[in-house]
Amino acid sequence: MLIALALACKPDLLIADEPTTALDATLQREVLQLIATLVREDGMALLLVSHDLGLMSENVQRTMVMYGGTVVDSGPTASVFRRLAHPYTRGLFAARPRIGLPRGTRLPTIPGRVPELVDLPAGCPFADRCDRVTDACRAAPPPPVPVAGDDDHVARCIHLEAAA
Ligand code: SF4
């Protein structure tokens, strides 16, 4: 209903924040097809916010992965999903449920907790949870670093080569 109301105004930009949460798979597919059709036919831009990696991979051209209030990985969706450049992106993918896993398989988790936005560490916001952390990571927030081989893809990590 809310989606229909938003679309009735024919906006230039639709911000869809977890638009299919709590919908069953069939309804989820129908809602996404409707949005995709309107984006295509009306030239509407779509900003999709989701924790569902499958949803993102099929519906957006560019992906930004956020952690601790910062975009830590950003680029064309195919590149972000293929390279898994940032350690947090890598952890998210490792933790996703997948068809075919043996029953009872425990999914990997990222140890530790997300920092409070009002109490972020001085350096990399992911430092307390990262298995590649060094002293340099804690010295200053990492700048965006180009991901080798992918124009237009950057990740905020000073040890990208270690993650390759
Ligand atoms: S900058 Fe350091 S702590 Fe931050 S993600 Fe990269 S390796 Fe991990």
Provide tags for this entry.
alpha+beta, Rossmann fold, 2 domains
What percent of residues adopt helix (DSSP H or I)?
25-40%
Sheet with the most strands, sense and barrel status: 4 strands, antiparallel
Q: Could you report the average pLDDT, rounded to the nearest whole number?
A: 89
Spatial ordering of strands, largest sheet:
3-4-6-5
Order of helices and strands: HEHEHEEHHEEH
Oligomer kind: single chain
Give the termini separation.
44 Å
Low-confidence stretches: none
Structural class: alpha+beta
Number of domains: 2
Shape: globular
The set of bound ligands, ions and cofactors reads: iron/sulfur cluster
In percent terms, what proportion of residues is strand? 15-25%
Tally of individual helices? 6
Radius of gyration equals 18 Å
Total number of strands: 6
